[in-house]
Amino acid sequence: MSQRFRIRWTKEGRTRFVSARDLTSVWERALRRADLPIAYSEGFTPHAKVSFPDALPVGVSSTGEYAELTFAAPILPVRDLGALSTSLPAGMDITTYLEVPDGAPKLARMLRATLWELVWPASDAAELTELLRRRCEELRRADQAEVIRHRPDGDRTIDVRPAVLELATFTRTTAPAQTRAEPTGSDAHTVLRAVLRNDGPTVRPTDLHAALSREDVAPPIATVRIAQGEAVPDGLREALSGEVERLVPDVDAEAA
After folding, report:
1. Last residue of some domain: 86, 109, 132?
2. How confident is the model at residue 72, as a pLDDT?
3. Which terminus, N or C, of the chain has the lesser number of Cβ atoms within 10 Å?
4. HSE value, Cβ hemisphere, 13 Å, CA-based, for 218
5. How many domains in the chain?
């Protein structure tokens, strides 16, 4: 009897450079090391039944990646998914799991929005935070916000505004774990958090930065996909746990 699980996992450190093309191979090797009965597709080139609903841009960190795994035989999730997490490369860790009942909606339908976090260096944090706060307000009031996305097959103009559900800019006195390669200390870092729609044309944090920067705001030192799920007032309801990830964390935020 087959068994399906949906999991939330991280992609941090060096693993953020693993491409979407190589991701399936990484997971297949980890499943073999953990000796788990993953199911395989039929045909001449069978593949492990592991699906990822949304590819993460290379170089971007995440604490909110998701996957669905189908096993050919029942497993003990605490033991076996723990073994799978241990078998994955450092930086990839399973943090939440949920067994999928028959008739459940597709995973992609549960991931309607993404909470993103962009972090800037500590220098001039107060000035930058105020500048971004004003521009976030301007973006909220705008009917459209067109930016040019540069692609190898030609430039493309996209409207960022329909994808923006929530925005918040604040300062934080320590850098997040995802930026530990950068200098840290007591200086305040500028943080921008945004809830963006997943349905419709894809809008990435780089597009949001382009809409806000007007060429006078440097790119962030870190971009992190925090979680995915359903947008709620002042945050996002995480897809598997149902817990709300606040747009402005109470503990860390010094200014909302």
Report:
1. 109
2. 96
3. N
4. 12
5. 2
